[in-house]
Amino acid sequence: MNATPTPRQEPAASDAPATDTPGVVAPVVPVLPSAELLRGQKAVAIDHNGSLYRLQTTRQGKLILTK
Questions:
Q1: What is the DSSP secondary-structure string of the chain?
Q2: Mean pLDDT of 3-13
Q3: pLDDT surpasses 90 at 36
């Protein structure tokens, strides 16, 4: 069975409102697994605002984003 992972949601610390008001929900940002972005490849190209970026994984398992 090949199930697609459901993206997680995590609060964005920089976007969280500076309030202690009960009932106020902090905004969340989607969290995507890197495997979903890379889809079995070592690198992918990302077009962002007309510029091309390269997201690649290293032999040590780290990610590098270059323009």
A1: --PPPPPEEEE-GGGS-S---TTPPPPEEEE--HHHHHTT-SEEEEEETTEEEEEEE-TTS-EEEE-
A2: 57
A3: yes
